[in-house]
Amino acid sequence: MDKKQKVLRKLPSVDAIIKSFYGIQWCKTYPRRYVLKAVRDVIDIRRKEILDTGSSDVSIEDMSAAIEIKIKKLSSYSLQPVINATGVVIHTNLGRSVLSDKILDNVKKAAGNYSNLEYNIEEGKRGKRYIHIKRVLKEIIGAEDALVVNNNAAAVLLCLNTLAKGKEVIVSRGELVEIGGSFRLPDVMSASGALLKEIGTTNKTHLYDYKSAINDNTGLILKVHQSNYMITGFTEDVSVKDLKTLSEKSHIPFMYDLGSGCIIDLKSFGIYSEPTVREIVKADVDIITFSGDKLLGGPQGGVIVGKKDYIERLQRNPLTRAVRIDKLTLAAFEATLMEYIDEDKAVRNIPTLNMLLQKPERIRDRAKKIALTLKRQIKNATIAVIEDTSKAGGGSLPEIDFPTYAVSIKPETISVNDLEERLRKGTPAIISRIKEDALMLDARTVRNKDIEELVKGVHAALG
Ligand SMILES: *Cc1c(COP(=O)(O)O)cnc(C)c1O
Hints:
The protein is α/β, with parallel strands linked by helices. The chain has 20 helices and 17 strands. It has helices at residues 3-10, 14-19, 21-29, 32-53, 60-75, 101-112, 131-141, 152-164, 185-192, 207-213, 240-250, 277-282, 308-316, 318-322, 327-339, 343-349, 351-357, 360-377, 416-424, 451-462; strands at 82-84, 119-120, 125-126, 145-149, 168-172, 178-179, 183-184, 195-199, 218-224, 254-259, 287-291, 302-306, 381-390, 402-411, 429-431, 433-435, 438-442.
């Protein structure tokens, strides 16, 4: 008999593996369906190896490691935590804002118990879900009324549909934004049933452009924050104050899509930035929309604040039901907003703000700690701490470079691209960036609790 045939005969059957010590353990821990699939796959691979090369390990013991890796892969969740070493705090691809344990505790309470989500405990009858964030929003930004929906895209869609369906919405050509992931203002506008009335030019729009665009079918004056780009040089746009005056004179509501929606004044941190939501509310803008998970640092959501009349009209729109937020998000929102009652606390306790506003020396200390631990374990790479800059991300504060510190790694035995790929494909995945010929681990977004796994991951990738 051929030698290959002999080896093939020794290959254990699916049944033998399932009934072995290993099989029994796996079936206790993992779904049987995945155990079976992994066993069959590995047997197939081994059979091919025998036929191709004539040799392979064929004992159950030899095969067990490969089978277990497959079972684990099959039974693991698709959505999984990663280590963000990019330095981009509001990283859209990596889930934007991270929530604190305190906020998550509140989510757990709301989701794991019955609650007064839509029940008025005082009166013993049906209540409203939006009540739970209204009071705190009033407190921190001074708005008359508020509504929260699934995300800011939904907020804009809902406002346009409610206030301007079949009517013209005046927008400056300098503000026809596209945010990543297919949010393009002209497209949202047409989906809402409102008619886009573009005015001005890319770099300059004047008050008279707005004035001359107004006609009997004008439904709304819309200002949109240029979240993720800047127009510099020979430019001009119209102030919120002037637009408010025009809106009052012409009896046309005025809406401002703030995009990120900054609640605390970043100027006190030396960051020149956009006006706070409170300042826009003070300017008496009728309707203001912004995201929950950008600079606010909360869960995905869209906040709509403004005049009571308009908010009530929004609530009567059947679309509101279609874009309403769930109780988990609502719980996360309320807990996040409560942190803002005391701004110092917000900066300390909201991870997005904390990572963005932390002192460079603290980032440097963390980078040094990571580098030192790595240097102790790794001999086949040049490791150093370097000064660099990071970005806010999420289309927020695009013009600002935040000074940061990164651990730079130049591998000696593999290419820097290989190192990036190995880190990305590890467990947990480590997402880094490459600058020139080095791999960068920006310590801004690496939390203390990530350090141990980060070091392990780099060690494994270079090992
Ligand atoms: C980000 C952004 C949106 C979309 O907000 P999501 O919460 O991502 O849906 C809309 N408008 C502007 C100006 C933005 O910056």
